[in-house]
């Protein structure tokens, strides 16, 4: 496929891509080096490209003795970007050379990791919450084959889908959304009436 960029400027890339953007937007998982995920997120926000980095507020005492809140990434070195492959390739080449695609094996081939829209929507709904009971887990620590596929039908996480499983170190079962090889996130304890099997 030939490059769509004539002059290489950002406006030309978007102008060429605009007619086909809505049909080909996908969530890509990208790695950033040296914990620059919030810098990359600020760049994508400035360019009006949807992206997601789970964060939490960390409080520190500054030199004046005041307590100051600061956003800190929870999943270090990862950013999720909803765009086209061509736009991300352009950004990687000309704007943010420290971005790398996360690869995974599918049908014995290494492929760029793309997260399905519904799965990403559920992940963002839970991981983007300020609730302190949300748990971030390593993907290896959760076995989703032992749980029931469910949808949350009420509350702040309404519409999120995941698997109701027992999480290590927690007494009750939780709804977990997992992005294979990257992260898993468990919703806070929910009353059983707020969850339906799908």
Secondary structure layout:
Elements: H1 10-24, E1 26-32, H2 37-46, E2 51-52, E3 55-61, E4 67-73, E5 78-83, H3 85-94, E6 99-101, E7 103-106, E8 109-112, E9 114-115, H4 117-127, E10 135-137, E11 148-152, E12 161-166, E13 173-179, E14 183-186, E15 195-197
Antiparallel strand pairs: 1-5, 1-6, 1-9, 2-5, 3-4, 7-8, 10-14, 11-12, 11-15, 12-13, 13-14
In words, what does this structure look like?
The protein has helices spanning 10-24, 37-46, 85-94, 117-127; strands spanning 26-32, 51-52, 55-61, 67-73, 78-83, 99-101, 103-106, 109-112, 114-115, 135-137, 148-152, 161-166, 173-179, 183-186, 195-197. It is 23% helix and 35% strand. It is globular. It is built from 4 helices and 15 strands. The chain has a 6-stranded antiparallel beta sheet with strand order 10-14-13-12-11-15, covered by helices on one side. Strands 1, 2, 5, 6 and 9 form a 5-stranded antiparallel beta sheet that branches. The chain folds into 2 domains: 7-115, no CATH class; 116-198, no CATH class. The chain is of the alpha+beta class and 198 residues long.
In short:
By secondary structure, the protein is of the alpha+beta class. The protein has helices at residues 10-24, 37-46, 85-94, 117-127; strands spanning 26-32, 51-52, 55-61, 67-73, 78-83, 99-101, 103-106, 109-112, 114-115, 135-137, 148-152, 161-166, 173-179, 183-186, 195-197. Strands 10-14-13-12-11-15 form a six-stranded antiparallel beta sheet, covered by helices on one side. Strands 1, 2, 5, 6 and 9 form a five-stranded antiparallel beta sheet that branches.
């Amino acid at each position: 496929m030939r490059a769509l960029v004539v002059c290489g400027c950002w406006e030309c890339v978007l102008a060429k891509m605009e007619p086909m953007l809505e049909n080909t937007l996908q969530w890509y998982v990208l790695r950033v080096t040296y914990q620059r995920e919030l810098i990359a997120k600020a760049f994508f926000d400035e360019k009006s490209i949807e992206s997601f980095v789970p964060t939490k507020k960390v409080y520190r005492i500054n030199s004046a003795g005041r307590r100051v809140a600061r956003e800190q990434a929870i999943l270090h070195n990862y950013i999720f970007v909803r765009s086209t492959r061509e736009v991300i390739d352009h950004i990687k080449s000309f704007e943010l050379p420290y971005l790398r695609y996360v690869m995974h094996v599918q049908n014995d081939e290494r492929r760029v990791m793309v997260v399905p829209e519904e799965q990403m929507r559920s992940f963002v709904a839970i991981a983007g919450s300020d609730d302190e009971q949300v748990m971030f887990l390593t993907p290896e620590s959760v076995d989703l084959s032992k749980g029931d596929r469910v949808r949350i039908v009420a509350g702040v996480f309404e519409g999120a889908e995941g698997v109701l499983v027992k999480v290590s170190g927690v007494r009750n079962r939780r709804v977990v959304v997992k992005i294979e090889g990257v992260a898993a996130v468990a919703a806070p304890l929910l009353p059983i009436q707020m969850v339906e099997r799908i």
